[in-house]
Amino acid sequence: MTTRQAGKPGRITNSQALALLKKADLLKLGQSADEMRKKLHPEKVVTFVVDRNINYTNVCINQCSFCAFWRSEGSADAYVLDDATLFSKIEETLALGGTQILIQGGLHPQLDIDYYTRLLTSIKQRFDIDIHGFSPPEICYIADSSDITISEALQILRSAGLDSIPGGGAEILSDRVREILSPKKIKSSRWLEVMESAHRLGMRTTATMMFGSIETPEDIITHLSVIRDLQDRTGGFTAFIPWSFQPGNTEIGKDKGTKYQKPSAVNAAATAVEYLRVLALSRRYLDNIPNIQASWVTQGLKLAQVALRFGANDFGSTMIEENVVASTGVCYLVSKDDIINGIKASGFKPAQRDTCYNILKFY
Length: 363
Fold this sequence. Notes:
363 residues, TIM Barrel, 4-stranded mixed β-sheet, 11 strands, disordered N terminus
C-alpha cells in the first residue's frame, strides 16, 4: 500500500477546506476538482462495478433516526434471508455479469459469529464472487458479542471468505452528531479502528459520508480530516463516496419539533448544488484517495453525470438490488446500459472494474 505524507506542499488545510465549503464559487470549486481528477486519471476512463446489494436482515438494535430500513425483532416485516433466497440472488447477479456482492444488514441480537462465518463459507463454496461486506458497526457487533478483538474478528471473517469492507456506518464521523442521530451506534473512533485494523491486515475498504442531516460545515471537515489522516497512515481506502441524507420515512423526516433542527443554512437541504459542492471539496481535500464515487442512487443519473466534472471518476455500482435508500422512497432505476451510455455522453470512456478497481472490460 502507498501513502501520502501529511503536510505535503499544496495540501489543503482544514481552515482552507472550511472556507471553500462555505464560500467558494461552485463552478470554480468544481473546475479545481475536475483538474485534480484529470491529474489522477488522465486517461479519461470512468469506472463502475456490476454488483448487487444484499441485506441479509433488516432487524437492527441501533435503530438510527436517519434510517428507514431497520425493524425491531418482533416486527411483522422483520426478516433474515434464508439460504435459498440468498443463493438465488447471487446466481442472478453472476448471470448479469456481476463480480461482487455488497452484503450488509442490521445488528440482529440473535445472530452470532457462527452465523457470519457460515454465511461467508457457504457463498464461497458455491460461487466465484467477491464479497464486499459488513460495515464497521457490524464488525464491532460481531467482535463484541463474541468477546474478541476487532482484529481477531476480521481475521476470522477474512478466513471464512470476506474480501473487503464497505464504508457504511460512518455517516458523519463527529461524536456530537452521532450522539443525536444514532446514540446506540459505535463512536467515530471505533469506526476508524475497524478500518485501520482491516488495512493493517491487507484488506481494502471504502469510506463514505452521509451529509445533509444536522451536521455543520465544521463537522464535514472533521469527517474528511480523520479519513485523510487514516489514509496517510495506511493507504487502505480505495474510494470515497459522499452521499446525501434522504429523510423519507425516517424519524428525522417525521419529527416536527426541534430535536433534529438543522443548525446552519449551509446544509439546510441536501440540494443538487450542495451535493456537487461537497463532492468537489472531497476530491480537492482527499489528495491521497485515488477514487471519488458519484452517487446516482441518491442523485439520479443526470446529476451523477454532472458529478464527473466535479471530481468524480467512478460511477459506483449497477446495484441490481438496493433496499436501504429505496426504503426512504427514493428509487432511481439505472441499468448497466444506462451507466455506460451516461458515461459516454459525458465525454468519458466506460470501464467495468472489480472491487479493487482493476479494469475488467472497456466499452
